[in-house]
Amino acid sequence: MSEMKRCNEWQPVFLMVAIDFALAIANVLLKKVVDKGMNHLVLITYRTSISAVFLAPMAYFWERKTRPKLTSGILCHLFLSAMLGATLTQYFFLLGIQHTSVTFSCAFINMVPVITFIMALPFGLETVDIRSKSGCAKVLGTIVCVGGAMILTLYKGMPLTNLSDSRETGTIHTTNQESWLNPNNKTERWTIGTIALVAGSLVWSSWFLVQARISKRYPCQYSSTTVMCFFGTIQSALLSLVMNRKISVWVLKGKMEILTVLYAGIVGSGLCFVGMSWCVKKRGPLFTAAFSPLIQIIVAMFDFSILHEQLHLGSVLGSILVIVGLYILLWGKSKEAKACVAKQVQEAEDHDEEDQASSVLA
Questions:
Q1: pLDDT at residue 168 greater than cutoff 60
Q2: I need a labelling partner for 206 at 20 to 30 A (CA). Which of 123, 144, 195, 289 fits?
Q3: How far is CA 3 from the centre of its chain?
Q4: Cβ atoms < 10 Å from Cβ of 8
Q5: Is the dihedral of CA 84, 90, 205, 280 positive or negative?
Q6: pLDDT in the model for residue 233
Q7: Of 53, 52, 87, 72, which is closest to residue 218 (Cα–Cα)?
Q8: Under the phi-then-psi rule, with left for phi > 0, alpha for psi from -120 to 50, and beta for the rest, what region is 22?
Q9: CA 269 from centroid of its chain's CA atoms
C-alpha cells in the first residue's frame, strides 16, 4: 500500500515532466515551420480548429450534467477570451519565436505569472502584505523577475557558443503581408521579436484576468476551452483573409507543416491542457506553474542540437533571474495559501467552540 501511495504521489510529477517535454517539442516544430514561411494566422486557425474538434467530445460527455446555460454575457466573455488567449497571444509569440529563438521566447513565457500578478493588483484579485514573509517574497520575486526581463530585453551580450547563426547566411522566407516585419538587419529582427514577445506576455496575462471572471460564471473548463478555440478559429481565419486573400497560404506544404498543426492542436493544446487540468486538480495551480521553467531547459537542448541557435550571455543571465524570481513568487504564494487555509481552519474551530458553549448555556 505504501508503494502504491508513493506512486500516486509521484504521478503528477512524471506527468508534468512529460507535458513540458511535449510542449518543448511543439515550440521547436512551430519554430521550424514559421522560419520556412508558414503564415502565422493560418497556423493558428488550423491549431485552434483541431483543438476544438479534439476537446468537444470531452466537453460534451464529461460536463453535460453540470454545464450551465450559455448566456450572451458569457459568450461575449468567451469571445474576448479567444481574442486574447488564442488569437493575439499565439500570433505575437509566433512572431517572437520567428525573429529570436525558442529559448529566448520561453523566458518570456516564464514571466507570465509575474506579469499577471502585477496586473491583478489594481483589480484587487491579488493582495500584498509587506509585513508577512509571503508578501515580501511576492514583492522580491516580482522585482527579480522584472530585472531579468529588462536584461533579456535590453542586453543581448556576447555569444557563448561557436554555432553559426543560420539567419546570417540563410534566406528569410516571408509572406507578402509580413514582409515589413522581416528586415534584413539581425539586430532589428531581434528587436521586433522582443517587442512581439513583450506584447504577447501582456496579452496572455490579460487573458488570465478575463479567465478568472469566466471561471466563476461558467465553471466548465472543457466546454469553455472548446468554445474559446472555436471563436479563436473564426477570428484568426477572418484576420488571415483580411491580411492575405491568397488561397495558396492555406495549403499545407509538406509533411512538416501537417505534422506541426496536428501535433500542436491535439497534443500541444488538447492532451497537454487535459493533463495540466488534472495536475491542478490533484496538486494545485502553484505546483503546475512551478514546472514551467523546465520547458525552457528542454527547449534550450533542442535549440542548440536541432535548430543550431546561438546562446548569448544576456539570454542566460536574464533567464536565470526570471526563473529565480518566478520561484520566489511561487514560494510566497504557497506560504500565503497555507496561511489562509490555517486561518480558515482556526475560524471554523472557534465557531464550533462558540456553538458548543451556547448549547451548554442553553
A1: no
A2: 144
A3: 34
A4: 10
A5: positive
A6: 93
A7: 72
A8: alpha
A9: 11
Residue 312 has pLDDT above 80, yes or no: no
- What confidence tier does 83 reach under pLDDT thresholds 50, 70, 90? very high
Residue type, 278: W
Q: Which of 167, 165, 203, 164 is nearest to 184 (CA)?
A: 167
Q: Which three cell numbers stand for residue 38?
A: 508558414
What amino acid occupies position 233?
A: T
Q: What is the mean pLDDT of residues 254-258?
A: 89
pTM for the predicted model, two decimal places: 0.75
**In contact, 124 and 330? CB cutoff 8 Å:** no
pLDDT at 262 over 60: yes
Contact between 27 and 106 under an 8 Å Cβ cutoff? The reply is yes
The H or E element containing residue 157 is none
d(CA 72, CA 77): 9
> Hey, where are the domains in the chain?
1-130+185-307
Cell of 128: 500584498
Terminus-to-terminus CA distance in the chain, angstroms? 48
**For residue 206, what is its C-alpha cell?**
490579460
* C-alpha R_g of the chain: 22
pLDDT in tens, 278-307: 777 777 666 676 777 777 778 777 766 665
